[in-house]
Amino acid sequence: MLNTEQLLKMLVRLIVLFTVLPVHEFAHAYVADKLGDPTPRYNGRLTLNPFKHLDFFGSILIMLVGFGYAKPVPVSTRYLKNPKRDFALIAFAGPISNIIMAFVCMTICKLIILIFAEKIFTSIIIFSAFQIFEIATQINITLAVFNLLPIPPLDGSRLVTAFLPDKAYNFFLRYEKYIMFLLFALIFLNILDRPLYYLSNKVFDFIYTITSFIPI
To answer: How many angstroms separate the CA atoms of 63 and 29, rounded?
Structure first.
């Protein structure tokens, strides 16, 4: 029998699997399609259907240890007018989609507080709804910040390579799979915890400020 803490942990991981990751990957596919690359569309990735984006083993890892991955959206640079710039825009779309989702979820949280101020701690349904959107806000912010780190294969590395000269750009692409192991080491050694926590708090404060049009 799962206790409350375990149920909450499972809920968080399901939110990641069925809302956060699909929106993130769809954003990549949407921008690629708009920039002229039909590859995501041909591969069935221009959809919010989570089952089109989830990787089997990546999903199992998320449910078991809380860290995993979705299927990367296939992009063919030969369709892009400006491959380096457009590839960076496609990469940037993922984290931006999570920031937008965090904004929406925080807005809903504040509306729940505003409208149901007297019932939020007495109604299980209202309080549960508040918790779900609060958790979703935090998850989206964390994923956005994490993916903007300039380390392959994260989206932030694509933004960095857009400003590199061609020789350095090709070198970076050639060795990025090896640099990826550095990322895994940083994660498992918890070296990224403190900077991610700091940056996530800054983004949270920013979104809290821009949702201040809701008086609570």
So the answer is: 25
Question: Which residues are known catalytic residues?
Answer: 25
> Residue 76, Cα to own-chain centre: how many angstroms?
22
In sequence order, the 6+-apart residues with CB closer than 8 A to the CB of 45 are 25, 26, 28, 29, 52, 53, 73, 74
> If 0-12 CB within 10 Å is exposed, 13-18 middle and 19+ buried, where does residue 52 land?
middle
| 131-179 pLDDT, tens digit each | 889 999 999 999 999 999 888 888 998 888 888 787 777 777 777 777 7
pTM of the complete model: 0.88
Phi-psi region of 82 (alpha: psi -120 to 50; beta: other; left: phi over 0): beta
Nearest to 70 by CA among 8, 137, 143, 157: 143
Whether 136 contacts 98, CB under 8 Å: no
Burial 71-85 (b: 16+ CB within 10 A, else e): bebebeeeebeebbe
pLDDT digits (tens, 9 = 90+) for 29-65: 999 999 999 999 999 999 999 999 999 999 998 998 8
Q: Determine the length of the chain.
A: 216
